[in-house]
Design brief:
ARM-type_fold, ARM-like, Leucine-rich Repeat Variant, HEAT repeat domain-containing protein, mainly alpha, about 375 residues, 2 domains
Length: about 375
Amino acid sequence: MKILKQSIQKSDSKMDASPTKGNIDNITAKKFSNYHSESHPFIIKAEQLKKSLENVKSTEFYGIENLSPKSKAVKCLEHLKSFSKDVKFTALHHLYNIAIDKVTDSVIEIILEELLRFLDKWEELDDEFLEYMLEIIGTIGLHPINIEKIPLMILMIIHDETSSHINLHQAAFSCIFHLGFSGVESLIKLANKEFPYFQAWVLEKLVVTNLIQKTIIVPALAQDALNGSGQIRNMAALAIGRLGTEVSKAINDLLILLKDEFWKVRSAACISIASAGPSVANIAIPVLLKILKEGSINRATVAETIVRLGVQGEKIMIDILNKEPLSNIIFRTSIIKALGKANVNNNNIDYVIETLYKLSIDRT
């Protein structure tokens, strides 16, 4: 039995992708597969920055490595006024490196005060310059000076589908997101804007962001999930599912969405319920069993959701499997696959393994 349990654990990664584990649509998944790197100009444009440094390291930046952090910061901030892109971008790169090092608060304040002065005239600056600046500000993170500028940075995010400044919008979003409670709260309010394209854009970002202030965003997402277009409801339901056990706070809203007119919304709600775990089993399983019987949502998805709600769900699905006619191969297969996702740490796992083992040797 122990060997079989270990085998299941080892083979779990080789199995088909689970339909209930944060399974956002393929286009979104591909587009935001590496959200942080995608919005990080110092990573994306590393080669360009290297060339800029090579062009100016023996002139404007000669001997800079010998300066103290404060002197280095002051020198780089002066170079931001240069007409040369190579000089400006190299200065920003040095400032970024200073920001990620452990420097004193006074040095950080010197950097922030000057960068935020530039930010006041953002409409006059080119996008690349702003993207680098926003990354530095976001890297520094929560600071009283930063918080005051959130309304200004919000203006850099708002756009429609005709915008040609997507990288800038994304950089501003990433920056605000790293400014703590106030930043996240501002982004949540943005998701309530009455523009379907923009709502979907913001929600897509929230779907793939792992550091969301969970207790703030759940109520806002639940509200979006019950209102707006089908696309908005779909993205909001998926975003809720990324919040782990915090999903339980929105369970009543998700149960309503299981009856939504659009199949994508129904599936998204089901997937998100799976993330809530055993805490919602008593309220969710009866509804899910009815849906499993009706077939209004893919049965494999519903079956796995029930299994992922803990021991109670596992036992119910085994009971259904034992009673289901052998001729119903498709349904039985869905349940068996779902049981393969059972939590090996549950005290019920031996029972699950025994059931699956018996099925594997049953030749009837």
